[in-house]
UniProtKB/TrEMBL annotation:
Full protein name: Magnesium chelatase
Family matches, as InterPro entries: P-loop_NTPase, Sigma_54_int
Domain Sigma-54 factor interaction: 181-241
Pfam families per UniProt: Sigma54_activat
Coiled-coil annotated residue ranges, if any: none
Top-level taxon of the source organism: Bacteria
MF (Gene Ontology): ATP binding; protein kinase activity
Organism of derivation: Deinococcus wulumuqiensis
Record-linked PANTHER family: PROTEIN KINASE PRKA, PROTEIN PRKA
SUPFAM superfamilies documented for this protein: P-loop containing nucleoside triphosphate hydrolases
GO biological process: regulation of DNA-templated transcription
Amino acid sequence: MTAQTTAQTRARTLGELLQTPEYAGRTPFDGQRRLVQDEVRDNLTRKLRSGEELFPGVVGYDDTVIPQLVNALLARQNFILLGLRGQAKSRILRAITGLLDEEVPVIDGVDMPDDPLNPIGAEGQHLLEAHGLDLPIRWLPRDARYVEKLATPDVTVADLIGDVDPIKAARLGTSLGDVRSMHFGLLPRANRGIFAVNELADLSPKVQVALFNILQEGDVQIKGYPIRLELDVMLVFSANPEDYTARGKIVTPLKDRIGSEIRTHYPTDIRLGMDITAQEAVKEEGVVVPPFIAELIEDIAFQAREDGRIDKLSGVSQRLPISLMELACANAERRSLVSGDSPVVRVTDVYAGLPAITGKMELEYEGELKGADNVAKDLIRKAAGAAYARSYGSADTRELEKWFDQGNVFRFPQGGDAAAAIKASSEVPGLSDFAAQVAQSSDDAVRVSAAEFILEGLYGRKKLSRAEELYAAPEPELKRERGGRWN
C-alpha cells in the first residue's frame, strides 16, 4: 500500500484488495509471501540509494555499528546487539521499524496478524475459506508491528509462545491439541512484524529453546501438544556481555542460529557524546548551557569510564551526562526563580547534580571506601581540568596563580546579579578578561559561568585548591605532585 492511499480508498475486503495495483493478479492461497526480512531489505536498499537517513537519533555509530547492522539486514539475518548499558541498543531495535512498509493488510477479527491471501493460522485459514473475497481486512501500521519484551528469569513459554485455553476449546468444540484452542503469546502476535527481546541472557534455557525451535523448525510443543506455526517474524535481540556470566547465558543452539553478533560501544569522542546528550536531555526553554559547561558535563562520563574506582564491566551509561545535564539546568532555573539570577548553567549547578552521578556508578572496593559523593566530586574536578586543558591549557595564568599563592582566597558569588558577580571576580587579576575570552559573549551571566569554569579548571589541573565555592592556592602536597606535570 502506498503512502498516498487515503482512508477512504483503502480496501476493506480481500476482493477490494485484489483490485489495487499492488495486488493485481494475485489469488487466495497462491503461496506468494513477502517475508518481513524481504520487506526490510527492499526499503533499506531504497533508502541507501536515495541517501536517506537510516536510523534517526542514533549518533556515533556511523563507522562502526551501523555498517554491520546494514549488512545483517541486507543479508536477511536475525541479529543480536551486545553492549553495556546506555549504548542505544533498544533505540536501534526500535528504529528498524522505519524500514517496514507504512501499512500492511491483515485479516480482521483474529488475534494473530495474518496475511489475507496466505494465512498461516488455522483461524485465518478458516475465515478465508468461509468468506472468500468478502474476507474483512484491516490495515496494520508499522509501529504496531514491533513487539518488544524485556527478558526476566520468570518469563515463561506461555508468555512468549502461548498456552492451551480449555475454555476456548470448549467454546469452539475443538480438541486441546487444535491450534484454534491456543491462546497466543507475544511472539505469534508479532507475526508479520519484528519481535525484540531485550537482555536475552536473562531468559531461562527452556524459553530460549522454544524461541529457536519455533523459528528454525516451525513447531513448538504446548503442554505436550505439537503445534506448528510457520511465523513470519524478524527476531532481534539485545544483551549485556556481562550477562553471560553474571546472571545467565545464551544457550548454544540459539546463539548459533543468530545470524550476526554486533557490538555496540560508548561515544569515542567528546563531541559525539555532547551531541547525544544535547539530543536526549530535556531542559526548560530559556535555560542556557554554555559550550564549556556542556563539555565539562560530558567529560565526567568519560572520566568515570576510565576511573579505577568504578566497575568497568557494569559500564557508565550515557544516561549519566543526560541526567546530569537535566539536573544542572533545573538547578540553574531554581537559582533564577529564587534569586533573580539569569538561568545560565554554571559549575555550581553541576555540583548540585551529584545525584545524577552517584546513581549511575557501580563502585569497586576502593570507591566504596571513599564514598560515592567523594568519587563523584573528584570526577567533576578531573573533568573540569581535562575540559579546560583541551581548549585553554596553554593560557598564561601565572598572574592569577601568583595572587592565590600570596595567600588570597576567593569565594565565588553563588547567586544574585550577574554584573555584581563579574565585579567581584575582578579582584582576581586577569580573571575577568580571561572569562570574557572563554565566554565569547557579552552576557554577564555567561561570563560569570566562564569565570567559575576557569577557576574549576585550574583546580582540576591542581593549580588551585577548592573548598565548596571557596578557591585558594593549592595545598603543598598538590604543588609537589604537580611538579613539572602540568607546567
